[in-house]
Amino acid sequence: MSDSESICFGIPNALPENRPIDSSVPHAPPRPQVLTDDEKKLAVRNALRYFPSEWHAELGEEFLDELDRLGHIYMHRFRPSYPMFGRPIHEYNAKSRSAASIMMMIQNNLDPDVAQFPHELVTYGGNGTVFQNWGQYQITMRYLSEMSDEQTLVMNSGHPLGLFPSSPAAPRVVISNGMVIPNYSSQDDYERMSALGVTQYGQMTAGSYMYIGPQGIVHGTTITILNAARKYLGITPSEGLGGVLYVTSGLGGMSGAQAKASVIAGAVCIIAEVDTYAANKRYEQGWLSELHSDIEAVISRAREATRNKEAVSIGYNGNIVDLLEALVEYEITPDIGSDQTSLHNPWLGGYTPVGISYEESKVVLKEDPEKFKELVRSTLRRHADAINQLCAKGMKFWDYGNAFLLEAGRSGANVYRQDGSFSYPSYVEDIMGPMCFDYGFGPFRWVCTSGEGSDLEKTDEIAIGVLNELVNDSPDEIKQQYLDNLKWIREAGSHNLVVGTKSRILYSDEVGRISIARAFNQAVSDGDISAPVVIGRDHHDVSGTDSPYRETSDIYDGSMFTADMAIQNFVGDSFRGATWVSIHNGGGVGWGEVTNGGFGMLIDGSEDCNTKIESMISWDVNNGISRRSWARNKAANWAITRAMRNDTNLDVTMPNEVDDTLINDIFDSR
Length: 670
Known about the structure:
By secondary structure, the chain is of the alpha/beta class.
């Protein structure tokens, strides 16, 4: 059977041979043993229902062994033997071209060059999964190959519920991940339900099939570093970041963007990563300039690079706490600092305690989960203490939306002001929210389904042409955003950002996204681009995510803990033209802390596609601006007023200003 036939076949007719764990790829740490024996029986029963009864005796023993050893049933036996990567769209034997594009995106999310733990179906973030097990993958790929454009595939936390009649105007796939009754959304609930095989943590773009490797966040990270230097250090856009020292941690799937972004921004970055495999991977891919295991070598290079105003990323293969404490000891004070350890996942290996290696921490996690938790808590307290000492000397620190302040505070660290608020801002609260999201700028992205580099180059040229026109007419309020984004896309090809599919990230507002998407559609129609283009975005955007400690941390009207915006966005995208839509519990800051969603749209060169672009992208951006405007964010008020002038069908409820003196007088007169 050829690879293309195997991809579409589904569960094989004959029981395949068991497959040993492949030591050539990194593997997720074993999950804690959280199930009773009765619950383990249920987990095995749940797993066996994907397979014929004559296989149950053999598979039952095997699945129980996986559950006992790994804390989860991955069904390694059913992992495909063919190479895993996103193929050109024409290589998929699918009846629906839209479904074929989704097959490509799924396989890209599981590509070993892209995914963090590919054989455990984890794309990034330690536990951001595409499916719960390989049986689900096999069935899903069969459904996608067989479905027509009058069917919709329903995905429940990785489980393919089935194909249901719909219409060509409906999404081809509707995805939900981790959606639970609110009172059952604790970390313990997640671990239990995940072990039972009834839910999964889809992160953001892992479970929604829209991950494009670290590039997916590198543009936003570049913008964050640039604007942090402008805001905190008083650096003008024309000055650049030469000699600015930035300290942070994480070289994983998302955090790995920091090293590349710092170099693009022109700064010196020192970045810690405990996982040797991840550090070497980013270094070999060219995302990290240099890598050291000796902390004194890192200190020496940081001094030299800062003095010479190099644009360089200096990796330290070790614990971030050791690095920060060394900076204190050697009296080196970075200008700016942050952290991107996977603290949305602190108890399952996302954060490594100081004093033990990454590999040793996995052993402790498996053998003594409670000891592991206490080691994490004590490390977080030291981590926060080192940050406090550096900030007392002048460093400007922000929480990068990874739940650092949240988990440090829960661990007893000194990260609170007297009024109970956090001592340091979230990067969305201070930077991305008021400078980007309130104006509608967010992480628009696209993927060339042909797999051809020439098509990616053409899309870059098209985007440059569109932005060149828009920047000339842009109002002063958003001109700098356009200039930053134009500089980014002009240089993107030279930065060797592509890992996996031929894709690109570009922060854009409503006008920019619609204009670029329409231009792509015309180019596909004219044959200038050889195959359709998938457009989408990160969930970390203007409208897609309700997250009080990240995306909506700059909402101050008391609604930061509500999730109407994300739910409405998911629903609205689904009937305005999206090819697939998703809604998730958890993502970025962790399970139970956020509701987020996303979409994918196949740009196929048709006139119908132009209608979908206009309708869906307008909603996808303006829904969030409207919510931010109603919260009285002045930039959002300006942006939605401008949008209403441009489209007479848009009519948004606007807030009336309330005089603070009047409110105080009313209360004083009680």
